[in-house]
Amino acid sequence: MPFIFMFPPSLLRNSPLYVLQKNYTILKEEDIQERQFEDITKISTVLSIPREAACILLWRYNWSVNNVHEEWFADEENVRRAVGILETPAVKALNFREVSCGICFEH
Asked: Which Gene Ontology molecular function entries are recorded, alphabetically (predicted)?
């Protein structure tokens, strides 16, 4: 009968014999874009913000939808200030139908 050594798991973790298995999925560029589009849509819809603002938030929180939601609902004002998303636009956008001259922008 072979002799088997029993080591506690804490000792094995620091040993070169201990192998930590990690599973990875290789994504194609199209898959990444699709996931990003879905995440942007989720954030934009749930928070009622423009898609561009959703992109900024996702970038800031390492593309984690959960982290964006947690931070936003914990302190929306602070998150807005941290990433530069204003609640109301600083400048009123012109309605281009009102502008008759594209050079001088007269009505």
From this structure: ubiquitin protein ligase activity
